[in-house]
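Figure 2 data, in text form.
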Amino acid sequence: MFLDFIITFIFLFYYLSCFNSVKTEHKIIFIGLFLIAAVLLRLLVNPELNKDYFGYYDLHNFEDPEDIVSFLFSEPYLYLIYKFFNFFISDKKTIFIFIYWWNFIITNWFFIWLATRLDLTLWKKMLLFVFYYFLFGFVLLRNGPVYILFACFFYYGYRNKKFNNVLITPLMHLSAISLIVTFFHKKKYYLKIFFLLLLFLIPVFLIYILPLLNDLIAFQNSMHKVDSYSEGMQVVSVFHKLYFLFISTILVITTFIYKREVVHPILLTTSVFYYISFFINPVLGFRFSPYVLMAVLFFYSRSKQNSKWNKYFNIISLLMLPYFIFTFLDTHIL
């Protein structure tokens, strides 16, 4: 019950900090109160209680790779973070506590950055916050920072600004390999080249490349981590299909609202890869869905910035508090 109160305060203080009309000094106060509540929750909740902890602790390989190929395919970000803390600390449990705090800091930096974006409406900020705050900050160690970097890239990319940090994401999680092509979205004929290459590379990947990759131990281990999420979990697979309908509905509504403006390389690329990943494996599709949702919510259109519906959506977003609490309970064993 006490944790529920803290989570409620986290939600409310973040909600208040997301108002674009609030004075700067008031926004700083709300962000400060949000951080105090968030740090308190992090101190009270042992990282071992999150449902992915022992998957990382027991199954992730932190041994030195045999060669550069296995190093690259082992998603070396987490390995390097682990080795950095291991340089100062020998106890594995203590190292993991520091890694979770590192992840917590990155996640809070991102959501504070998000709260201060004046060209994003409050309800869009809250939707991302409710869906992914606990997932990014308390659970995921490898792909959480990748989602965050791509979110920043999408935001700046829609506004014709550079964000080169996204180039390191393939070293953090293999899912980023496909989406890294969006880095070139400003190039002439990007969409034509993208769809032509897609038609050519899909059969090449399935027939030639995939069998070779399966021979790499590091790649097999990575795929094993994905398979373990869906193995023997029929209820979860139903949820994944429902989530597929949810994402598809959002894309249809987005197309209806923005019409021709929706033909943007970033949004089209993320949508195409989402559907490909879902039809390969619904679990992969579910793990790819944050990219699509962020690509949709960060989409920028001057003509739609002051829609009359935003005021109502801002108010309705308060009703997401119960789901916000649920996302914490659902990701932890309490």
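Caption note: The radius of gyration is 20 Å.
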